[in-house]
Amino acid sequence: MADVGALDEQAVQALAREIAAASTPTARERAQRALSPSTLAMGWATRRPAFKTNLFRFVDVVPACETPAETADHLAEYLDDPTSPTSVRLGLRAAARLPRGDAMAAGVARFGIEQMARQFIIGSDDDLDEVLARLGRRWEAGFASTLDLLGEKTFTAREADHYAARVSRTFLRLIDAASRWPSRPVLERDPWGPLGRVNVSVKPTALAPKMHVLTEAAGVAQAVERLGPILDVARQSGATVHIDAEHDETKDATHALLRAIGKQWPDGPALGCVVQAYRQDAADDLASLVRWSGEALDIPLQVRLVKGAYWDAETIAARANGWANPLFEQKSASDASFEACAQDLAAGAAAGAVRPAFASHNIRSLAAAITACRQLGLGDDAFETQVLHGMAEPLHHGLRIWASGCACTRPWVTSSPA
Amino acid sequence: MGDLIPGMSYLVRRLLENTANESFVAQGDLRGEALEAAIGDPATSPVLVARRETDALDHDSGQDPRTEEATMPSHDPTATFRNEPVAELRRAPVRARFASAVAAVESALGFDVPLLIAGRAVSTPETLPSVDPGRTSRTVAVQSLAGGEHVQEAMAAATGALDGWAGRTVHERAEVLRRGADLLRRRRGELAALIAIEAGKPIAEADADVCEAVDFWTYYAASAEALEHIQLAQVPGERNDLHHRARGVGVVIAPWNFPLAIPAGMVGGALVMGNPVVFKPAEQTPGVALRMVQVLHEAGVPPAALSLLTGIGEDVGPALVEHPDTSFVAFTGSRAVGLDIVRRAAVVQPGQRQVKYVSAEMGGKNPVVVDADADLDVAVPAIVKSAFGYAGQKCSAASRVLVPDRLADQLVTRLAGAVDMLTIDHPTDPGVDLGPVIDADALERVNRYRKLAAEEGEVVVRRDDVPEDGWYVGPLVALVPDHRAKVATEEIFGPILSVVPVTDFDAALAAANDSEYALTAGVFSRTPSHIAEAARRLDAGNVYVNRGTTGAMVARQPFGGHKLSGTGAKAGGPDYLLRFATPVVVTENTQRQGFAPDL
Known about the structure:
The complex is a heterodimer of chains A (418) and B (599). Chain A has helices at 9-22, 27-35, 37-47, 49-61, 68-79, 86-97, 101-120, 128-140, 157-178, 185-188, 204-207, 216-237, 248-264, 282-296, 311-321, 331-350, 363-375, 393-403; strands at 146-149, 189-190, 193-194, 199-202, 240-243, 270-276, 301-306, 354-359, 384-388, 408-415. Chain A is of the alpha/beta class. In chain A, α5 packs across α7. Residues 402-418 of chain A have low confidence and may be disordered. Chain B is built from 18 helices and 21 strands. Chain B has helices at 8-19, 32-38, 46-63, 68-71, 92-106, 148-167, 170-186, 188-199, 203-226, 261-272, 286-299, 313-322, 335-346, 376-388, 405-420, 440-456, 505-513, 528-537, and strands at residues 111-113, 115-117, 120-122, 127-131, 139-144, 238-246, 249-253, 277-280, 306-308, 326-332, 357-361, 366-370, 398-404, 458-462, 476-479, 496-502, 517-518, 520-524, 542-545, 562-563, 581-589.
């Protein structure tokens, strides 16, 4: 890999300011945000750790409640607590005194959670038409999307089959819908060739319960079998299939899965993968993925660089077992790792081996990644920036306004299943 | 709302990110100084360096207790105890180390296990081999068979060693155990491989067996020292001291299912309190027993203070228990043998000069209560691991599930699907979930209960795709309508799980407690008041909330049951060593002619 040299710190900060300026929310956005129940609840939670625990535990259990009475019981157990904000407690007490007040409180709570869920989850399998329409509107507004089907943990073959069927069904519908979207040249081509309008993200453990470092061969075989028809469709339609990253125990098996797919489908479809910068071995893994993509794939692998979403769970596992944490313990170290990996990824892209994508809500991190690409002479059409649906919304627009038609921005959108 | 279930873990992750003080998103829209602080170089920015230092402090005070002990000296030596970390088999180099250890052990199978009596190796003309249960054509070790005369010799040697060993300071004996723990650490791979092959235990659990033995020795070493510091009330002119003297000669009779950890705990605990020990291991695992005794001798236990008598339980056990010089018996194993020991030990023999103390840790029929609001994503894998890990051959294994009617179908469907995914193969492969059962008798017993499960309930999953060259039997889950059915009340010690539907949580707790046993119990619930009620009502020595019922850790989960599960000793806990000690209080009048030094 080319020597990437040091990042131009002044350029990074100037770009960060530029993105920040473009991402300033409008007065209307600010007002909407301040009034939303989730902003209120999250504000309380940020300031009150004990309430945060209770609130999250309540959110976690609500879907298992079958009747309003059950929801009301859990509401009282978790949130009628001295650590809750006074207004929450008074509200619960007042509701308890009203006829059918319990059910009302439960209804309000469910509604609130549904609103929170709707903020981060674009829709469910039940209202797929609406999901597709929303994705179409995002596309028209200049945002490409990758669709991630959330699911329960998969322990059984039947659950894995069900997940694969859901992915297939959604994928076909999306391909069909996307064919009618208007042309958006900036989202449809990069220096390496055409870019599909459709991009789906799949979780390897949802495809294969055996997807684990200790049962890698069985896991990869199961996943390839279930993914095969999806890959064939993607290959014909020019869509991209993105293999997500999950916990430590699945990382090596996921890379083995990528290699197995590349071997069986060397000339397409376009594939994507994830490198988690919070891992201490992120740079090594990135180097080997870049090398492999350059050698084995006709269409360069899209590498999505993220910080990583499982910090708490991985850190708990390492500490409880007395193992060295495979992740950086400090946030700033993950941030620094993200920038170093971004430079390596840019170098890999400059060598033609991979397509870079930078996924973060941190303006500094994005600015550093983009600067790394620019320093190596890559144009602004050579990389994607990706943000999550519902997270840091003003940034979505900021990135697009800043990009002003020369880079493609891919909000990374999720859909909840039935 | 049901359609949001699958999104919930994603939603909670996003909420966490939005409410974390460190998170960029939680800071809202940034301007001015806040923006400048946030866009600095993470490697060098003074703001981030300062934050990093704050983080480090946070970790010191709140998260990692390891650094606390340096600043807060404790009078309790066990406060500094740390569990030996289990092997990180998710790393390829670690797996490679274990694979080469397995190969090394496999190349030296069929070794002799003589009796070790006061340091003398005695080979008997008649022998009994131990066999790899996962490949029965392989002999692991060939044990000599102790008889009555060997019992007499070993007991005489132990009695002779009592004064010398008990006369050492507790610190000297504790050091011996710590040296033993170091030796175990050095032979970790070899011992784990031998346990996997001789006891048929999957390699990760075999390694945990070695770690637990290390834990017992380091914890009991510290725990014995801590007993020195127990304070009695004092008044002027009087000095009161509590001493813990050795109890006498101990007999340890151990099982095969934790062939290193359990005897290490019982033998090590007895030894550190100054008691010589005659150790009778299970006839299925003499090879592991020999290695443990060798380690203790190498660590400095006098040969006469620890003898090894391998052989047939019926030939050796009663003679040891009934010997007049036996002071106490530490037993872990089946209920029938445990109760027989209690009965025999109660009979005073000619020449016997003390009441024999028996600690008997026996079986269980461990329930798991699944509440209507349980998270099945957590409950299902935990139940499967608890019920079928080591083919259900842990005394802590979950063997019956009590679940409200409305959730029963869903639970059983997911359990069945998860059981279909289990890998059944030779225990030396790190990807294996369960291996064989220990011997032909166990196989026959499990097969009998498999038939019974079909008669008393409805079999929902039954695996028969198992390797042939070994005592393999696949896991089975049955839906059993009556919680008093035999399959749901009798200990099977094999891979069979009964799921019993009940009306509600209260009925589940009642059914869970309707048992002769009280060893472990589990509850999965997300209702705080139900969790509190289960903690109060579930009648078991170890109650687990929202996790599996196996894998108790020394010092973190002191382990042991009551009712017909045992005499209530808590292995790996602060009180365990008291059963191996004779407490003596010495009170001295410190006044001479009206003068006392402490007034």
